[in-house]
Design goal:
By secondary structure, the chain is mainly α. It has 2 helices and no strands.
């Protein structure tokens, strides 16, 4: 009985830890993606004929 409760508690804590890490990784990757897209869209691309030569 004791070991069963410990196993169930361990399984629940691992699931909660995994869900928390998924939540953190999702928002971290979303933040990095938005920052990189914003920097590309706000970059100045001055291309003239003299720049291409």
């Amino acid at each position: 009985m004791l070991y069963g409760c410990l196993g169930i508690g361990q399984a629940i804590s691992i699931c909660l830890l995994d869900a928390g890490m998924d939540f953190i990784f999702y928002y971290a990757s979303q933040s990095l993606h938005h920052k990189s897209v914003r920097s590309v869209f706000h970059a100045s691309f001055d291309t003239t004929v003299s720049d291409c030569i």
